[in-house]
């Protein structure tokens, strides 16, 4: 617990500084680095001794995708990168038939997920940040939802948790903890809205709190999804890069679901404006 809190105390201010004050290309580098590490973690746990050039192709694509969006390129560029990675991996698969080590369909599928699909999902944070005036404060919304949901579920579950939520996937998660995460996320989303209103932003508290509630459910779904991946391959954590938290995928798993949801939610509904 102590190590977990220390890591959060160091990491959260750095994350806030990047989101609120760094240029978009700096934010793109940071998210690209997270995506690259996450790609390595996922491939390492699921593919093992895959040829290094497959790792390199997926990791480079994962790093470059957020950078492309930070420089203003549109979704068509992201789709182009996805298609290019698939083209490279398809060539690798066909060429491997002439060698001793075959490239399998599983290698291609996991590499596409790690190197293109997941980075495209997380890159929505960059597109949210590009919105004029209110973009930077909007980016904090999915982060607040994810971390408050996680913290609420953890502390409520630790004190009052009795009924298991998904024992075969995540044995420590409870129904009580899940409800605690929903309440915490909804409440803190509303509090964040009140803070922004005091700073002169326009805020629709109802839709913001609604995102906190629904976003907590989606956040927990993302957490369980990546936990299921780990159970399939018999590992506890994706890596040990973040002391007390595990790897990048252990800490940011829910963001892969929440970031695209936030972009869609804020596109269709009034949430925060200047």
Verbal overview:
The chain is mainly α and 274 residues long. It folds into two domains: 1-130, no CATH class; 132-274, no CATH class. Helix content is 75%, strand content 4%. The chain has helices spanning 2-21, 24-47, 52-70, 75-95, 105-122, 124-129, 135-160, 175-198, 205-233, 248-252, 255-268; strands at 164-166, 170-174, 202-203, 272-273. It has a two-stranded antiparallel ribbon. A two-stranded antiparallel sheet has the order 3-4. A hairpin with a 3-residue loop joins strand 1 (164-166) and strand 2 (170-174). Helix 4 runs antiparallel to helix 5 (105-122), helix 7 (135-160) packs across helix 9 (205-233) and helix 7 (135-160) crosses helix 11. The longest helix is centred in the last third of the chain and has 29 residues, at 205-233. The chain is globular and about 65 Å long.
State the gist of this model.
The chain has helices at 2-21, 24-47, 52-70, 75-95, 105-122, 124-129, 135-160, 175-198, 205-233, 248-252, 255-268; strands at 164-166, 170-174, 202-203, 272-273.
């Amino acid at each position: 617990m102590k190590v977990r809190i220390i890591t959060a105390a160091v990491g959260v201010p750095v994350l806030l500084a990047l989101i609120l004050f760094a240029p978009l290309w700096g934010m793109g580098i940071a998210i690209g680095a997270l995506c690259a590490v996450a790609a390595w973690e996922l491939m390492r746990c699921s593919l093992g001794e895959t040829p290094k050039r497959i790792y390199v192709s997926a990791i480079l694509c994962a790093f470059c995708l957020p950078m492309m969006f930070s420089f203003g390129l549109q979704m068509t560029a992201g789709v182009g990168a996805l298609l290019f990675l698939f083209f490279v991996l398809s060539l690798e698969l066909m060429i491997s038939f002439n060698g001793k080590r075959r490239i399998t369909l599983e290698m291609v599928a996991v590499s596409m997920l790690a190197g293109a699909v997941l980075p495209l999902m997380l890159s929505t944070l960059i597109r949210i940040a590009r919105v004029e005036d209110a973009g930077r404060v909007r980016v904090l919304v999915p982060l607040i939802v994810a971390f408050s949901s996680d913290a609420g579920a953890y502390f409520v579950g630790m004190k009052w948790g009795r009924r298991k939520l998904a024992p075969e996937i995540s044995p420590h998660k409870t129904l009580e903890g899940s409800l605690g995460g929903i309440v915490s996320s909804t409440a803190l989303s509303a509090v964040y809205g009140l803070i922004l209103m005091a700073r002169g932003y326009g805020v629709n508290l109802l839709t913001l709190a609604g995102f906190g509630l629904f976003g907590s459910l989606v956040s927990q779904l993302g957490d369980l999804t990546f936990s299921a991946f780990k159970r399939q391959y018999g590992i506890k954590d994706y890596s040990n890069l973040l002391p007390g938290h595990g790897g990048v995928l252990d800490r940011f798993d829910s963001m892969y679901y929440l970031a695209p949801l936030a972009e869609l939610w804020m596109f269709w509904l009034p949430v925060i404006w200047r």
